[in-house]
Amino acid sequence: MKKIHAYLICIFIALLSPSSFSQSNSEQTPLTFNSIILATQKRSHNDAVELTKQEQRYLNALGKIRLCVDPNWLPHEKITDDGQHIGIFADVIALISQRIRTPIELYPTNSWQHSLTAVENGECHLISGLNRTKEREKYLDFSIIFLSVPMIVAGLSDKPFIENLSRLNGKKVASVKGYRIATVLAQDYPEIHIEYYPSVAQAIEAVAHNKVYAAIGSMLGISYQVTQQGLSNVKILAHSDYDGQYRIGIGKSYSELTPIINRAIASISTAERNSIIQHWVPLLPSAKADYSAYIKGIIVLVTLFAILFFRYKETLKTKQRLEKANQQLHTAHCEQEQLIKMLAHEYRTPLSIIQSSLRLLRHEQIQPNIQTRLNVMSNAAQRMQFIVDNSLNIHTHPHTSGPHEASSDLSRCIQQTIDFFQSTYPEYQLDVRGVKQIKLAASDFCIRSCLDNVITNAIKYGHPQQEAIGIHIRSNQERCFIRISDKGFGIHNQEKEKIFDRFFRGSNAQKIPGTGLGLNLSRELVHKFGGTLALIQTSPNGSIFELTLPHHRG
Predict the structure, then answer these.
(1) Which pLDDT belongs to residue 423?
(2) Where are the alpha helices (DSSP H) in 136-287?
(3) Which residues does the chain have with pLDDT short of 70?
(4) CATH 3.30.565.10 residue ranges in the chain?
(5) Where do you find CATH 1.10.287 in the chain?
(6) Which tens digits make up the pLDDT trace of 372-404?
(7) Which of 115, 134, 372, 492 is deepest in the core (most CB within 10 A)?
(8) The whole model's pTM is what?
């Protein structure tokens, strides 16, 4: 099962983004197999490389070449408890030693950072398997690339796939101190919090125990540790744009070794390279292996990728449709504002003429009954002017007032309502109780419109002999409750749920002028300020409506 796990990890990476690498004219094109590339010249013999007399004398003078390594980075390399150097890099170094006929002995260190310091101080001649960086070029020469490996991000299986490393911003990501990938990641993504560990094994262990969000490193190293530790809860989260292009570092004081090492690397045959890789990471099955399991795995992965790609395309189309709809909505809103402004202007002009004419008529010597009618007409014109002005403000500035910004004096609104109805409908009385100096989180227009609509309905649909329309006010710490009661004919039970519907008119209102919009508009306006308007009681003897609004907290 461990081998199958390793196969699937590497096949998945190869499917998602197969790597390709290029080198300068002095370095040959690397060989690709399953995204693991051992790059050298294609020479098929394993004879010793040819050395000049000067190079041979130099090697003889050195005697032994001291090598620094990463002491805990399998399958790349490791120093065992008995001091042996093992791993992919160790096998490559052994071949190099054979080709140049010079012993390369291990210089023991306890960490990768220790090895970097040792080679910088001249304690060892070579350091195996590292990437070229500007900082390292200060104290090292570099060989040609002998191994290229993709860098991947691994995390717990419940984490989502990461399409871009910027998704790791603000999260903890484990790496090994001194590794180039940690330095590059910190430079390119400064908002990622990098947690340093002594080895890849410990970094992966931190992922498994949820101490960090993810770990980044060589695909070989991470997949090996996941397999060795039997971590079924760790998966690949992302394939990065970075590659580990591993070379041999040569101390600046020993630069004569550089061309010798390069020729030795170039002499390693394809068969030797394949044997080394397959020994440490069984990525490729043997000739007798059963391919059916891997083919099924590839089919499943390709299918999953196709599904993800399809979902991405559908999401993109949906986003484009929403953007288009939003643009159309914005255009319609602008046109609506322009129309409302135009209508308001058209309404204001005749209203101004009516009000001016009424003011002139009041100065004439006219009969008392005509004067009363003029007062009614004047009140109606003023109410119309009030409605037009406030409707324009609501529609052209819908977000400028709300339950937290608006403020209205309830007692003032009640008094204005009383004045209007006493002058317009003097035959009806308003029985007002419980009026207090209360500040409500609503506009004057909201309160006046609701009261006017409900009271007007009580008059229009009420009993002609009803003595008074009641307005009873009470409040608690949070809200104010205003009840309007009448002695009308009531509302049929089957119509109670419909009276707030737009354009609905009851069966007892068909012969009475009206549009069926008043209650609907009033309720929508009240909701805007966090209030309610409801029919709480009805009977053949009358109805009770209740308006609730929150207190202003200014």
Answers:
(1) 78
(2) 180-188, 200-208, 219-228, 257-266, 270-280
(3) 1-47, 282-291, 337-353, 355-376, 378-405, 464-465, 506-515, 554
(4) 404-550
(5) 314-400
(6) 666 667 666 666 666 665 555 555 544 444 445
(7) 115
(8) 0.44
Rg (Cα) of the chain, in Å, rounded?
43
First to last CA, the chain: 68
Residues near 297 by beta carbon (within 8 Å), at least 6 away in sequence:
7, 8, 11
13-148+243-286: CATH topology: D-Maltodextrin-Binding Protein; domain 2 (3.40.190)
Q: Where in the chain is the domain with CATH 3.40.190.10?
A: 13-148+243-286, 150-239
What SS3 state is found at 487? coil
Query: 404-550, which class in CATH?
Result: alpha beta
Q: Does domain 150-239 have CATH number 3.40.190.10?
A: yes
Q: Residue 26 phi/psi, 5° resolution?
A: -80, -10
Give the span between the Cα atoms of 472 and 77, in whole angstroms: 88
Query: What number of H helices and E strands is found in the chain?
Result: 14, 21
The length of the chain is: 554
Note the pLDDT of residue 52. Answer: 93
Give pairs for 184-193: CB < 8 Å, separation 24+.
184/242, 185/216, 185/242, 189/165, 192/165, 192/168
DSSP SS3 for 67: strand
CA–CA dist 550, 413 (Å, integer): 15
Beta bridge partners of 245: 148
List of residues 6+ apart from 421 with CB closer than 8 A: 428, 430, 455
- Chain segment 183-218, per-residue pLDDT in tens: 899 999 999 999 999 889 999 999 999 999 999 998
| Burial class of residue 477 in the structure, from the number of CB atoms within 10 Å of its CB (0-12 exposed, 13-18 middle, 19+ buried) | exposed
